[in-house]
């Protein structure tokens, strides 16, 4: 019964911590859809393989939300026809680059200036790497089915014919002059869609929090921190801890402060980099964006990237 009570307490903490940011993300996505006609500015985003993810990553400075709140915003970007690199660059970088997370990192580690530089820089590089990797996959193999349909419907007819847009009709691409001007959706439609999106994401969030709370309860953190002094072992242990704990990126620096003296610098940075990209709570939320194979590719690539960054920091700091 004690473990059940512990799991319930952890579940409540994770859920209550994440819901406000999830709601904030849905609200921002809904406002963007209502205030800015679809396609009005999406078409101006760069589509260069490098500039697109860089632009998306830099957009993360404008959103004070953790990884849960970024999912609905990234989904709206991709559904509106934004370049894949831009949508994923925002998704992976914003949880660390947003002002609240940067401020919390500074508040937790004011005496470690290297970390205040290494965390946002590492998150930026990791987001570019993951975005460029995922953008190489065909959209049909990358994006979740419903999102892919929305994205195709948002494309101008000059780029996709009617059959490709999912209308069931066969037609050739139309010239530029026939492309309809973006229309602002009604406020009622935006509210209805945002409500459905919030409920869908909330269900996935609850499932993720249940899994994270269960794993945390039966996998004590002391086991992972016991090898905190080993250069490579400490990095792997803290990466696993980041995945299991699934704490919000806006407060993970304060959690890391509790064991910072017991682990290597590379392991500390690895914990702060991997959690906002890969954790048990996010696994369910990502299913509204990408397919399971793409989620697996993201998890493996992010883990390898963070491991290399952590190893380099240990060589530099130790």
TrEMBL record:
The entry's keywords: Cell membrane, Membrane, Transmembrane, Transmembrane helix
Domain of life: Bacteria
Compartments where found: Cell membrane
Pfam families the record matches: ArsP_1
Membrane topology of this protein: Multi-pass membrane protein
Predominant place of localization: membrane
Cellular component GO terms held in the UniProt record: plasma membrane
Transmembrane segments: 7-36, 48-65, 77-97, 117-135, 198-219, 225-247, 254-274, 294-316
Family: Belongs to the UPF0718 family.
Protein name, UniProt field: Possible permease
Origin organism lineage: Bacteria, Bacillati, Cyanobacteriota, Cyanophyceae, Synechococcales
